[in-house]
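Chapter summary example.
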Amino acid sequence: MTASSRRAVLALVFALQLGAGARAADDKPADAGAEAAAAPTPLPGAPKEPAELRVRITVRAIAASREAQAPEVDPRLAPIAADLHSFASDFNFKGYRLVEEQTFDLDWKSPAQMELPGSRSVQVTPRGLGADGRIKVHLEVLGQHPEHARRLHTDYSVPRGRTILVGGYKLDPAKPDGGTLLIAVTQAVK
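The structure predicted for these 190 residues follows.
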């Protein structure tokens, strides 16, 4: 990813966080070895996570387009339609189609991975629960197989029951006119 592409993705993520009320915790790439050795830092004022508390995270891969004649939202995206409409007003997307959706029931610090179009993948890991109900989620977008180079490696705080949208990548790198890939991450604590 070029420096200008990375800036565009980070600007898109920043704008989405403002609209959805999420906060980025860190957007700097970390050394993979250092990350594995270092224990995650709990959010200030965060309660201890009870062993039985799990997190439900829904990850959606969405094809966004500026080409639609009228605003179109795939009916399967109804649970996050309000977030998409807010997003559309800022980024001029007119159409949204669900490409893939998976819901994961995770223990704290347990990763889940989902395949994305273009032979890529996204990995999410819940890291902690804040006193305000936000969870800290580590998100990695991995490049095409087999290299799996990191394209995004950062943490977000996601409000309970809310969604963050991360995007700016081509839906399929082999098809430059195929639309934009958005990744929606929604959380709920069980």
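To summarize the output: Residues 3-36+52-189 form one domain.
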